[in-house]
C-alpha cells in the first residue's frame, strides 16, 4: 500500500507515522505533500528520504494534487494537520481511502476553522472535563466522515490551551500511526 500524508505545519504526526511504517513491508509513506512551501513537515520528510510535493490551494482545486497522487499510485491519503478543505473531486477519488485526525471529540468542536488552539480554547471556555482526538474518514462535509477511533484525556480548569494541546498531541502520537496501520491493513 502506498500512503501520502498531507500536512500544513510542523508535522509531528507525520513524523510518527513515517517512523511507524519505516520497516513495514505492507505499507510505505510514498509522499509528503504540503500547501506551505516552508512547512517544517517537509524537513521531517527529508530525514526519512520521503519525496515531497508542494502545491497552492488554486493548484489543488484545479486538480494538480489529484494528478500527483494518481501519478504516484497513492492508495491512501492521510491528513495530519492539513488546514485546507479537501475539494470534492479529491474526496470522491479517495472515497473511504482518506483519513483525518481532529484534535477534539467530534461531533463537538468540529467544522471549518476549528483547528489548533482555537479548539483547545473552546474546550477550556466550555469547562469540559475531558477532551481528546477523533480519527475519521473524510467526506464532502467538514469533520463529518465516519469516525474510526476516538481517545480521551481528562482536563481541569487548571489546564491552559497549551497544556490541553500537549495532552492532545500525546494522544495523537500514541494512537494515529497504529490506527492508520489497522486501516490500511499493515
Ligand atoms: C494536530 O493537533 C492535529 O490534530 C491537527 O493539527 C495538528 C497537527 O500537528 N489537525 P502536527 O503538525 O502533526 O504537529
TrEMBL record:
Listed transmembrane segments: none
Keyword Transmembrane helix included in the entry's annotation: no
Name assigned to this protein: Phosphoribosylglycinamide formyltransferase
Domain Formyl transferase N-terminal intervals: 1-180
Xref: PROSITE patterns: GART
Site (described: Raises pKa of active site His): 143
Organism in which the protein naturally occurs: Algoriphagus jejuensis
Record-listed (6R)-10-formyltetrahydrofolate binding positions: 57, 100
UniProt KW keywords: Purine biosynthesis, Transferase
Residues annotated as the enzyme's active site: 102 (proton donor)
One Pfam assignment: Formyl_trans_N
EC code(s) of this entry: 2.1.2.2
Residue sites binding N(1)-(5-phospho-beta-D-ribosyl)glycinamide per the record: 11-13
Catalytic activity: N(1)-(5-phospho-beta-D-ribosyl)glycinamide + (6R)-10-formyltetrahydrofolate = N(2)-formyl-N(1)-(5-phospho-beta-D-ribosyl)glycinamide + (6S)-5,6,7,8-tetrahydrofolate + H(+)
Family: Belongs to the GART family.
Taxonomic lineage from the root: Bacteria, Pseudomonadati, Bacteroidota, Cytophagia, Cytophagales
Known pathway: Purine metabolism; IMP biosynthesis via de novo pathway; N(2)-formyl-N(1)-(5-phospho-D-ribosyl)glycinamide from N(1)-(5-phospho-D-ribosyl)glycinamide (10-formyl THF route): step 1/1
Gene: purN
Function: Catalyzes the transfer of a formyl group from 10-formyltetrahydrofolate to 5-phospho-ribosyl-glycinamide (GAR), producing 5-phospho-ribosyl-N-formylglycinamide (FGAR) and tetrahydrofolate.
